[in-house]
Amino acid sequence: MKKYLFFLLFLPFVFSCENQGKRFNHEGGEVNFPINTPLSTKIPCFAFDLNTQMVLSQVYEGLVEIDPTTYQIKPLLAEKIDYSPDFTSFTFTLRKNIRYHSEKGDKQMSHLRLKPEDVIKTLEYDCQQIQGKSSYAYQNVLHEIQGAEAFNQKKADTIAGLSIEDNEITIDLERPDPSFLQKIASLSVSILPTEWLENPVGMPPGTGPFYLKEVSNRQIVLEKNQHYHKKSNQGYKLPYLHKINFWIYKNEKQKVKDFLAGKLDIISQLSIDQMSQIFKEKKANFNSIPPKLIYKNVPLLKTTLLLFNVEKPIFQAAKNRRYFNYAIDRTVFNREILKDPDNDSKVYGLIPRLGNLFNTYEYQSLIHESLNYKPSKIDTSLFENYRNDTLVLNVLNDPRRIKTGKIIQQQLKNHLGISLKVIPLSAKDFFKSIEKRDADLYLVSLSGDFLSPLSLMSHFYSGSIPDSTNVPSNVNFMRYKNWYFDQFYEKASRQIKTSDQMHNLLLAEKELLKNPPFIVLYYNYDNYIYNAKVKNFSTNRLNLISFREIYR
């Protein structure tokens, strides 16, 4: 009897210590970080804009993640990954005793633990049509799973390529994909509990290091998940911070003013003029030893471009779209927007040059298909029928976006004689407009989900377009179709050897430039300045920012 009583007394202690690591000396505190737009969704599978992805990636987790330093795949909710030699079958062994948290720390959901059924139910949820929409997760990657398309179209009650055995989940694909693990590392394929999926009300519970405490038009507050499952390499319990405050700024000047006043710990997406202002006013903080403020410049796998609405009569002919490209002088954007006149490119293809990162990608071979500024090659007679029309360009309501639109407006008028109306929209209205495709042109920035040209090119692959025109296309926004591009893209997707993949991607990009769905304007980089008291803050070419091990 005494032994039994001792066991009962000891049992609560066992559970209270679950997932407890060593306590870090600098644990606690908070960080203030600015973003430009509010959350577009609270459900991971529908998140495709960068601000929403940054916030929700602190709250939700998938089976695997991309290491922000090495860009390699690491297990996350899975503790082990196995895959077939031909990359058609992937088996994930789940970690045990991982607890969910929920919005505002709701204790009703805190008893829920990750189980294999959650993975199957999440993937089914992501693959179904919800209120007439297919998720970004489905269109971007999950459509590759055997039976996912039939399930999406309600021709099957289950997804044939998903199975469970004990604590293992196996995913079988329709065809080989060596990049599948990189693709499902996306926030959009985060795992949710079956209990929420069966009654999807409110914000879904997650397993990430933070939970959503508060959302308003001005601020998004995340607080520490006390039951988080991961520890640091030194064995310390994560996360270190107790709170993250994401402040939503519509006024860029106010953002800089608040950073200078010490109300923000980190500031990003800075123009050259804004950086000059901060450098001038805080010169001593940069030059002190040790420095009190730190500056980082990070080239990104991100391209800013104009998307043609290829369903509009003026853009149905590839020749017309090439002439629009020839009318655009990119040096003006480098000078007026980036304030970097040396940032010129000889090609202006889709894929940015990131040093030697894609060293087997032969950029110079694209020169023959180059769409650089060549007004002398434009046959203006083709646009006579459109002289009395005014095209519509939708942009986000941001000073730099509006200025970029005005430059485009002037150049098209000068070289094509075509009038353009620039319409600034809120993020919510802008994404709605893209879904409806009710403008002629859209100013967007496309980012890579993983470190490969394949990730950017996915936005122009016709295989991701929904069959029904009533279902928004969330990856290939303008429903662009190019059979030749698709052939090389698909071949590259199946290549195991990097050099072979790059060769086929290069051929795919040549087809994009021959039949362009866009006008590439410039390649993006981000400028960060942060308080040196913020430790372990790092950035990378994918703009993946994890607050898991940041402290101050």
Task: Write a brief caption for the model.
This protein is 28% helix and 20% strand. The chain is α+β, with helices and mostly antiparallel strands and 552 residues long. Strand 8 and strand 9 form a beta hairpin.
Mind sketching the topology for me?
Layout: H1 2-16, E1 30-35, H2 50-56, E2 64-66, E3 73-75, E4 78-83, E5 89-94, H3 116-127, E6 129-130, E7 133-134, H4 136-140, H5 148-152, E8 162-165, E9 168-172, H6 180-184, H7 194-197, E10 210-215, E11 219-224, E12 243-248, H8 252-260, E13 266-267, H9 272-281, H10 283-287, E14 293-308, H11 318-326, H12 330-336, E15 390-396, H13 399-416, E16 419-425, H14 427-436, E17 441-447, H15 453-457, H16 483-494, H17 498-514, E18 518-531
Parallel strand pairs: 1-12, 15-16, 15-17
Antiparallel strand pairs: 2-3, 4-5, 5-9, 6-7, 8-9, 10-11, 11-12, 13-18, 14-17, 14-18
Helix pairs in contact: 16-17
